[in-house]
Amino acid sequence: MPERKTMERARRDKRQGKSASTQAGEFVHEEMHHIRSGKHGAQSSKQAIAIGLSKARRAGVTIPRKERSATRSRSRRSRSRRHGIRHRQGPARY
Predict the structure, then answer these.
(1) What pLDDT shows up at residue 82?
(2) C-alpha distances in angstroms, 47 versus 8, 34, 36, 69?
(3) S-S: 26 plus which of 9, 44, 61, 77, CB 3.0-4.6 Å?
(4) Parent domain of 60
(5) Which residues fall within 8 angstroms of residue 14, CB to CB, at 6 or more apart?
């Protein structure tokens, strides 16, 4: 659960009309503080950012999800065809 001060800062940013990333930045800032003080065992700052964004989403900040590129899945599909791999929607049954 985010700290009360963090929630207040994010709400203040929302009232002032600031962007969603600015609002979420408060949660990320809090996570970085936790990691530096030794509360978490996260390995990198990327993990702190991911945890902070997740907390912000749960708190109601409307952050868009990270988009996956269509070209990546398209190239994966063509590679699979060359190697005879079939991708199924449901569970594989043998």
Answers:
(1) 67
(2) 23, 12, 13, 22
(3) 9
(4) 1-85
(5) 23, 61
Examine residue 90 and state whether it is found in any structural domain, yes or no: no
- Could you tell me if residue 94 is inside a domain? no
Q: Identify whether 68 is part of a domain.
A: yes
Predicted local distance difference test score (pLDDT) of residue 83: 66
CA–CA distance, 49 with 94 (Å, rounded to integer): 41
SS3 label, residue 93: coil
Alpha carbons 73 and 90: distance in angstroms, whole number: 18
Please report the pLDDT score of residue 40 as a whole number.
Answer: 72
Q: Look at residue 75 and tell me if it is in a domain.
A: yes
Q: What is the pLDDT of residue 74?
A: 64
Between CA 50 and CA 3 the distance in angstroms is 17
Q: How many domains does the chain have?
A: 1
